[in-house]
Amino acid sequence: MLPIKYNAKNVVLRWRSTLATILGIAMVVAVYVMVQALAVGLEKSSANTGDPRNLMIVRKGSQSESSSIVTLEQYRSLLYSEWIEHDANDRPLVTADVLTLVNLPRREQNGEANTTLRGIGPMGKVLRPQVKLVEGRWFEPGKREVVVSKRLAARFANFDIGDRFKTGPDWLTVVGWFDAGNCAFDSEIWADSDEVRALFDRDSYSCLLVRPVNAEGLTVLTKLVEEDKRLQLLAKNEVAYYREQTMTATPIKWLGNFLATAMSIGAILAAMNTMYATVGARTREIGTLRVLGFRRRTIVLGLLIEGMLLCSIGGVFGCLLALPINGYATGTIGFESFSETVFEFTITPALASQGIVFSALIGLFGTLIPAIKASRTPVIDALKSL
Predict the structure, then answer these.
(1) Residue 70: which region, alpha, beta or left (left: phi > 0; alpha: psi -120 to 50)?
(2) Where are the domains of the chain?
(3) 109: buried, middle or exposed (CB in 10 Å: 19+, 13-18, 0-12)?
(4) How confident is the model at residue 80 (pLDDT cuts 50, 70, 90)?
(5) How large a percentage of the chain has pLDDT more than 70?
(6) 28, 326 in Cβ contact below 8 A?
(7) I need a labelling partner for 92 at 20 to 30 A (CA). Which of 25, 183, 221, 289 fits?
(8) How far apart are CA 77 and CA 226, in angstroms?
(9) Averaged over 193-218, what is the pLDDT?
(10) Residue 302 has what pLDDT?
(11) Beta strand ranges found along the chain (DSSP E)
């Protein structure tokens, strides 16, 4: 245990080099965690969307709701299926939605961006209970009214309650704000579906959302939709459908991994340089350990533990440096719809653990070569060193 105690005490005694190593690794890990938190936030936004009781129906081959087409005939052929649940007034729990992109100005004259306008049917709010009105009122069909996500309202101009904005040939009035619990609907504007169809001269819908009567109904309805060659539609559980809509997170993950690789190479070289300097200043001490009978592998193990300990401490500090951005709301362009996607930086325990493991690996590979070199230094040369 003597070499391990020796290495642990050395971390404290040589505090200047220790502090430099910890700070360097902390910055690397902080950047890594921040970039990965972007991807985790986007994935969480999609995975948190929908109701497991609902069934999403889109055109086969469509990449997203906005690129899907569901005709009026297809809608009517499914509307009165016996496998669809009804409400207390015997109305089928089905909503036919229309999605379109509208280009609007950002706040503070910060350019323009696309955002998603979703037209929903009368059952749209019932089928999406996670969406809550937080201010104002819901839109009334036929009056050119919309409700917008509160998160989206913070990013775009003319989204305050009572404001009006022009899209297509007409003006729309904002009458309320909603909160969707940090899911994909937080990136949308909602209006009446038939009104949106009329506004943009659409003769079809984008997708259908239905609630089967039970688990058996979900299976039967899915099979009915997918096996009917006339429909050419695809049915999938709503939660599963949105969970798969994470194309935007993929390139950010690639970017994070690329940055992590590039920074880890630099961090390994920096750690190696630090350990070379540290070992060089302790050559006589290492020679003394050899004289006392400690094996080379024991000395290598002790130095590896020291390097990994330093870098792991740096990893913990790096996670703490990144922690203030957790929950910070931002937005980016979604590759599924090419519209503004609102989400939050999300640092999970798993991501923080990845950062610490990442730092420990930097310590391992950065210390390995200096440790082997130190253990192979001839004892006489080591004892003669200044």
Answers:
(1) beta
(2) 2-47+247-384, 61-231
(3) exposed
(4) confident
(5) 79
(6) no
(7) 183
(8) 14
(9) 91
(10) 77
(11) 55-59, 70-71, 94-105, 112-120, 132-136, 145-149, 164-167, 170-179, 188-192, 204-205, 207-210, 233-237, 329-333, 340-344
